[in-house]
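PROTEIN DESIGN WORKSHEET
SECTION A - STRUCTURE
LENGTH: 353
TOKENS:
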């Protein structure tokens, strides 16, 4: 008989495949998502789903809005919140949105399922994530090798936290663990405090909150290049703005406006202090206090690219990791065309000033 956690993984993977298949099927029926609509003022209108608007790793989206960069470029961008990267991806496939701010690895995962999605602005070349361990379990979970048989928190099945957890466990030789869908922010913290998970993958400001309160400890830190290379054998391009290849091909002028705004936000991050950045963000994002929020930004802002360009070797490392450990991509690496998963066409054309 299979180990219970292995059985659960099999059932969950099957469910994910069915969900993805439904999304792909629906996408075939929705062509209107490739047509840019205009708002009342005649500006092109684009809906972008963000895999957690309040997450520091995705702050360029809300920052671009706060700085008025979308308006300056003459494009109306509707930013919608979705905590799960997998659900954000499905919104793109079904035509509910024209873009997603999420992890680049979804473009590789989707190509393995027959979909062409590409990153048009690469916001970061590292995940900005950390594997956190509950303080009560810190003595017994000291490395990824101790994941065996444990409950590990992820935002949802098919999310980038799921991909990364599979990679960390696989590299450590772990045969079975139970992935637990716990979302992010307060739901993640609650799951760690009530024993629902032993450890889990999350981002700032949740990391900072757990560390400050003493409820959790950083086990594997991928918020720096050094930590990412140690954990994953190289860079792992993550936060990005991705769109369907068809939409990009049919609407280059609109995509350029979006790219200009996001690169403008990246340049602002590169040139300003955490306090100055925080001042442009919604006040309620600092729900744990402005000091802690600024600290989260200060500890994370170095992860962002200043120019929005992809690290080519990093993209290859993402494919290598997914081909080895991802349920969906494993064994298909040789069939993936990385040149169709990202483009620098638009960031190369962003005005210098």
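SECTION B - SEQUENCE
RESIDUE ASSIGNMENT:
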């Amino acid at each position: 008989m299979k180990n219970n956690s292995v059985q659960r993984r099999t059932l969950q993977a099957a469910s994910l495949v069915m969900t993805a298949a439904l999304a792909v099927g629906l996408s075939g029926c929705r062509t209107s998502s490739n047509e840019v609509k205009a708002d009342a003022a005649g500006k092109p209108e684009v809906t972008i789903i963000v895999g957690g608007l309040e997450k520091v790793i995705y702050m360029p989206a809300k920052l671009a809005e706060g700085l008025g960069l979308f308006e300056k470029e003459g494009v109306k961008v509707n930013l919608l919140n979705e905590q799960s990267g997998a659900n954000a991806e499905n919104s793109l496939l079904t035509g509910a949105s024209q873009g997603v701010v999420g992890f680049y690895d979804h473009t590789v995962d989707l190509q393995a399922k027959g979909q062409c999605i590409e990153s048009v602005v690469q916001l970061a070349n590292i995940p900005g994530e950390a594997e956190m361990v509950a303080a009560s379990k810190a003595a017994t979970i000291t490395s990824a090798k101790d994941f065996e048989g444990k409950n590990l928190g992820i935002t949802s099945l098919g999310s980038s936290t799921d991909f990364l957890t599979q990679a960390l466990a696989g590299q450590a030789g772990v045969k079975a663990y139970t992935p637990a869908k716990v979302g992010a922010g307060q739901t993640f913290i609650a799951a760690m405090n009530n024993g629902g998970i032993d450890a889990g993958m999350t981002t700032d400001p949740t990391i900072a909150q757990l560390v400050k309160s003493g409820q959790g400890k950083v086990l594997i830190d991928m918020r720096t290049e050094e930590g990412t290379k140690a954990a994953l054998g190289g860079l792992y391009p993550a936060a990005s703005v991705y769109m369907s290849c068809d939409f990009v091909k049919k609407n280059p002028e609109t995509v350029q406006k979006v790219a200009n705004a996001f690169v403008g936000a990246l340049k602002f991050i590169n040139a300003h202090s955490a306090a100055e950045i925080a001042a442009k963000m919604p006040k309620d994002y600092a729900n744990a206090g402005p000091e802690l929020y600024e600290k989260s930004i200060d500890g994370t802002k170095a992860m962002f690219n200043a120019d929005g360009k992809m690290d080519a070797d990093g993209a290859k490392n993402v494919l290598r990791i997914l081909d080895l450990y991802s349920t969906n991509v494993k064994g298909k690496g040789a069939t993936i065309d990385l040149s169709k998963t990202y483009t620098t066409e638009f960031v190369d054309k962003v005005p210098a000033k």
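SECTION C - NOTES
The CA atoms of residues 227 and 254 lie 36 Å apart.
The mean pLDDT is 89.
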